[in-house]
Amino acid sequence: QVQLVESGGGLVQAGGSLRLSCLASGRTFSSRAMGWFRQAPGKEREFVAGISQFGGGTYYVDSVKGRFTISRDNAKNTVTLQMNSLKPEDTAVYYCTTARGPAIATRVGEYDSWGQGTQVTVSS
C-alpha cells in the first residue's frame, strides 16, 4: 500500500497559478502510474491528469489541456501538478492517486491508494 500526502492547494484569482505536490511513501511508487483527480461539490470525482510509470507518457482531460502539467520524480517519490491560467470551474478538492499498474488510467476504479485531498479555490 502506498500512502499519499498532497500539498499546495489554496485560493487564487482567475488566471493565476498553483502547484500541487504529492509525496508518496512505499516501495511500489515507481512501479505505478500516477494520477490527479478532482471533485467539486455535488459532482462526481473526475480524472484530471495522469502520468505513466517512468514519466514518459502523460494524459489530460480536455478541459485542462494546455494549462496543467503533470510530472513526477521517482527518486523523490513525488508527483506534481502545475496549474496555470486557472478558471473558477477548476475549483475542487484535488486528489493524488496511484494506479493499479504502470500505464495511465482514467477511471476511479483503476486507482487504489488515495491522498486526503487538497482544496483549490479559484475566484472570478
What percentage of the residues does DSSP assign to strands (E)?
A: over 45%
Largest sheet: 7 strands, mixed
Average pLDDT score: 96
Radius of gyration, CA atoms, in whole angstroms: 13 Å
Q: Based on helices, strands and strand pairing, what is the structural class?
A: mainly beta
Number of strands: 11
> How many separate helices?
0
The protein's oligomeric status is: single chain
Cα distance spanning the termini: 39 Å
Shape summary: globular
Order of helices and strands: EEEEEEEEEEE
Helix content: under 10%
Low-confidence stretches: none
Structural commentary:
It is a single chain. By secondary structure, this protein is mainly beta. It has strands spanning 3-7, 10-13, 18-25, 34-39, 46-51, 58-60, 68-73, 78-83, 92-99, 111-114, 118-123. Strands 2, 4, 5, 6, 9, 10 and 11 form a 7-stranded mixed sheet that branches. The protein has a 4-stranded antiparallel sheet with strand order 1-3-8-7, with no helix packed on it. Strand 4 (34-39) and strand 5 form a beta hairpin. The N and C termini lie far apart (39 Å).
